[in-house]
Structure formats: C-alpha cells, structure tokens
Amino acid sequence: MRASGGLLALLLALSAPAALAHKSSDAYLALAVEGERVTGQWDIALRDLEFALGLDADGDGAITWGEVRSRHPDIAQYALARLALAADGAPCPATVTEQLVDRHTDGAYTVLRFAAQCPHAPRELGVRYTLFADLDPQHRGLARIDHEGASRTALFGPESAAQSFALASPGRLAQFGAFFRQGTHHIWIGIDHVLFLVSLLLPAVLVRRYGRWLPVDGFAPAFWDTFKVVTSFTVAHSITLSVAALGLVALPSRLVESAIAASVVLAALNNLRPVVLGARWAVAFGFGLVHGFGFASVLAELGLPRDALVTALVGFNLGVEAGQLAIVAAFLPVAYALRATLFYRRFVLYGGSALIALLAAVWCAERALDLKLIGL
C-alpha cells in the first residue's frame, strides 16, 4: 500500500503541472560590462507582454508594430522596474536607449536596449531579475554576461531572482557547473520531455504475452530495458542538441514543439495498444532526435561564443542526463514493486497512459494550430 501511494503521488505530481504545459516563457538578457558602464539588450516575448500589459489595443488577436510602438514608454517602465543592476552593492541606474522588434524561433519579441552607469567599475556585478514573477512562476530569464572577452551565463527565476557574478574570468569548471544546472533544470520544467520518458518507462516492468501485460520475472530485465531506453534517448537528443546549437540545422519552433507533443501521444498510445514492443529503445532514439531540437533552442538563443558553446553542450547534456536518471531512480523501484498488482496495470499503465495521451493531444493541437484550448 505504501508503494502504491508513493507511485500515485509521483504520477499526480507529474500530471498536475502537465495540465499547464506549454512553450515555456523565456526572455533573453545580454549584458556587457565595460568599465563603469553596463550596456544591455533584453528580448521579451510580445505574447508575454500582452498578458502583462494588454498590447493588443483593438483586440483583433494580432499585435502590430504600431500597437507596440505606442506602448514603448509602458514597456520600458514595466521591464526596468523588474531589473536591478549593482556594482559591488552600489546601484547602477539603467535607462532604455532603443526599442525594436525581432523574431525568435517561437514568435515576435520586443528588444529593449539600455545602458546603466555604475559609480565605479564593478568587481562583482549584482543582478536582480523579477520579470513576470507575479504572473508566471514558470518564466525564466536566460542571461549572458560579457566582460573583457569572457562570457558567463545565468538562469533567473522565482527561486534565483538575485545573483552576483565575479567579473574575473570564470574557470571552465564554473562554466561547466552552470550549464549542468541549466540542463537539469530544463528537463524538470520540460514536462512534455518528462512525460515522454515516463510513457516509455511504464511498461519496463512488464512483458507482453498472450495479448496482455504480465509482470517481468526479475529486476534485471526491467533494469536493462530501462537502460536501453534512457541511453537511446540521451544519445539521440545529444546529437540534435549539438547539431542545432552549433547552427548546422535550424527548424521552426512550432514544428519542433508540435512534433514533441505528437511523440508523447504516440508513446502513450503504444502502451494502450502496443505496436512496438521489443524495440522501444529505437522509438526512444527516433523521437529523442526531435526532443533534442527543443533543448537546443535554450542554448541557441543565448548566442554564446564558440569556445563557451563546447562547454555548454557537454555540461547541458550531462545535466539533462542527470535529471533523467533522477526520474528513473524515483520511478523504477516503485514500479517494480507494484508490477504484479492490478493497480499498476489498470490504473498506472492504462490510466496514466490515457491521461498522458489526452494531455499531449491538447498540446499538439495548441502548438500546431496556435490555439489556446486550456486557457494558456
């Protein structure tokens, strides 16, 4: 009963945020420190600013350049009120110097260019980032800080709103650690990636015989099946993550996000009416190639220099892998303990797969057709 309760709690924890899964709200902040002056560029999605400020004046569902331009003062005031810079603790007031509109892979963004004057050249730059903190707890700010030819990155969110950066050249180990943490974080907030993996793990403790699911005889078959699935997924998404982040291949964000949602639907439906059984690792590899493009958008938007990109790829990939292994470590022992129960086969495998397929179908329709079916 304890094992059943634990697995049910885990599934509920995954399905709760899944109901709100969508293209994550990200903004991109680039800071360059030169002596006492900090110049910056802040790319913020218009869809997020529409939710915060109501940019669509005529309510026709399309935000025009004229509507954005008329709200430039409001956008500048709103954004700069949620960004604070400091040199060794002393404030560096910022003013907007230019506002533009640019297009990222997932839509149009306003581009705020600004400058901040510090009382002295900072040895440590403090950044407090609270954009959309009161509206969207899933929003993340992806930042790059440049100083004397060296780059470092940071991820801002509600739990990491204030950070300080020593401007001495960061070591490779520190850069690696930062990207490792980002990789782990992005697998956990990428609920569609998580549910794809869970869909592949659900039948790992079962075997299909006589037209029905039966429990495996021992832990070793379940472990090796899981090992092949997770390894195949990791290798595949690492390939496309590297290729896309290096700029060798670029795909439209809507196509990638729709394909990711479709992969979750198919993986879950395969548990309800199995088509692929013995080669599920091949399914993991094939769809892992698609998921890699989703991870790549995070690194590509940062615009990292090539030397930092190698460190980013290794650290980010290993971080994603660590996040996946944490999921496996939490799921597999409990699933194995419950594999012979009616609860597992009926409620966890069938019920969980049906719920995942339904949610993913909604995401797929939203992403492919640019709809808002569940109020997102």
Topology:
Blueprint (H helix, E strand, L loop, with lengths): L1 H17 L7 E9 L2 E9 H8 L11 H6 L1 H9 L2 E5 L2 E2 L2 E11 L2 E11 L6 E6 L10 E8 L2 E7 L5 E5 L5 H18 L1 H11 L4 E4 L2 E4 L3 H27 L7 H20 L7 H23 L3 H33 L3 H28 L7
Parallel strand pairs: 1-8
Antiparallel strand pairs: 1-2, 2-6, 3-4, 3-7, 5-6, 7-10, 8-9, 11-12
Helix pairs in contact: 1-10, 1-11, 5-10, 6-8, 6-10, 7-9, 7-10, 8-9, 8-11
Structure report:
There is one protein chain. With 376 residues, the chain is of the alpha+beta class. It has two domains: 2-22 and 190-369; 26-172, no CATH class. Helices cover 53% and strands 22% of the residues. It has helices at 2-18, 46-53, 65-70, 72-80, 172-189, 191-201, 219-245, 253-272, 280-302, 306-338, 342-369; strands at residues 26-34, 37-45, 83-87, 90-91, 94-104, 107-117, 124-129, 140-147, 150-156, 162-166, 206-209, 212-215. The strands form three sheets. Strands 5-6-2-1-8-9 form a six-stranded mixed β-sheet, with helices on both faces. Strands 4-3-7-10 form a four-stranded antiparallel β-sheet, with no helix packed on it. A hairpin with a 2-residue loop joins strand 11 (206-209) and strand 12 (212-215). Helix 5 crosses helix 10 (306-338), helix 7 runs parallel beside helix 9 and helix 8 runs antiparallel to helix 11 (342-369). The two termini are 36 Å apart.
